[in-house]
Amino acid sequence: MLAVREVPVRSVRRVGLAAAMLGVMLLGSALPAFAAGHGGGTKGGGGGGGRPKGGSSLAVTNPGEQMATQGVGTSLQIAATGPSGDSLSYAASNLPPGLVMDAATGVVSGTPTTAVQYRVTVTVTDTVTMSTASAQFWWFVNAGYDISYPQCPSSFPPAGALGIVGVTDGIVYSANPCLSTQLSWAKNAPALYVNTGDPGPQYSSKWPVSATNPTATEGGQTCNYSDANSTACSYVYGWRAATDALNTATAAAPAGLDVTKLPWWLDVETGNSWQTLETYYGNTPASQDNDIAALRGMSDALKAVGVTSVGIYASEYSWNSITGGPGNASTTDPNAGFPLSSTPTWVPASTSYSAGFTAGCTNAINFLTGQAGGISLFQYTVPISGSTFDADYPCP
Q: Nearest 10 degrees: CA dihedral of 382, 383, 384, 386?
């Protein structure tokens, strides 16, 4: 009996990947925990605050993570309390350029001019007792979030400068039940990602050939039943999986949104079924070629309908485990080749982000090259209002 594995054979994370998958060095310090995987993870708080000097009842409320878009006006009211009748004075340091603090009202306002992250400190002073209280928080300019089925039905972060939405429900040939709502959430700058996999003929109910359907052709590759476990068959499998995702996204898209005009990302993770990870096939050069061919089929299918940007999301660990790593970029089978040199990369990073987005863009390992830097999008988890979300930053 066929053991179907268009389902995860290892746990597909719904709250992050609990394994050390990506070596990221930020400001020269090794980061201890990792948040590779869509759906959020776990991390520490975003900054303290509220304990005054001098023992008064003065306190300032930490506003938490703030998002802003370069060139778009924004404002934030800092809330503080003090002894009745005392006047308060407000100050802030390390605000994003273009923003200013009103010392009398505690309102931060303006138009950010520079796309980067800032660790802001706000200090409130009781002008009678001269006691102070402070809070620290991150203010991100041009960052965004990615969400998918784990955030159903409505646990969404605030809309950022970009919003990346998962089309599938954690596996290939599935649909995110909240896709339509989440695409509306991502209206500022939507993009899409799709789960990937290559279970091979032994474990797939969607394999393109069978005894009754002995041939299948997509994108110039022909899969034959007589050689069902081949790069051509994996390519056709990937092509059709991407086509299914395209149809799912098109059906869920709000009126006026053409999903073929959006950036797409292929989510490559060990939580899904791959020939290299199945004992039946073994982690061999042939299995690696097949898995890469499935990714190429997905990429080619998206580009065939007009998608101009198809990137890959992966940790260094996942990419190396599934494909053999950068040294196997061309693979032993030319039919499995993938245009790696021009492929955008989206890299998950440590749950710790004390060094910020820009340091991650510079020092995170690009899984396609095995070298630091040169990535397109940098991801880590952030806590917001008691929930944890994946934050994303386009690298300059």
A: 160
Give the pairing of strands 144-147 and 163-166. parallel
**Distance between alpha carbon 144 and the CA centroid of its chain, in Å?**
9
321 touches 20 (CB < 8 A): no
Domains, the chain, ranges and CATH? Answer: 25-39+148-394 (3.20.20), 59-140 (2.60.40.10)
Cα distance between residue 384 and residue 387, in whole Å: 5
pTM across the whole model: 0.76
- Distance, CA of 391 to CA of 368 (rounded, Å): 22
Tell me, rounded to whole angstroms, the distance of Cα 310 from its chain centroid.
Answer: 14
Q: Which amino acid type is present at position 242?
A: A
Tokens matching residue 376: 């397109």
pLDDT band at 47 (very low <50, low <70, confident <90, very high): very low
* Cβ neighbourhood burial of 254 (10 Å; 0-12, 13-18, 19+): exposed
Sign of CA dihedral 124, 61, 39, 164: negative
Q: Are 98 and 115 in contact (CB under 8 A)?
A: no
Predicted confidence band at 7 (pLDDT cuts at 50, 70, 90)? low
33 near 226, Cβ under 8 Å?
no
pLDDT, tens digit (0-9, with 9 covering 90-100), for 166-219:
999 999 999 999 999 999 999 878 999 999 999 999 999 999 999 999 999 999
Q: Which residue has the higher pLDDT, 9 or 319?
A: 319
Q: Do 86 and 49 contact (CB within 8 A), yes or no?
A: no
Alpha helices in 230-284 (DSSP H): 231-252
Q: What sign results for the dihedral spanned by CA atoms 322, 272, 197, 186?
A: negative
Please give the distance of CA 257 from its chain centroid, rounded to a whole number.
21
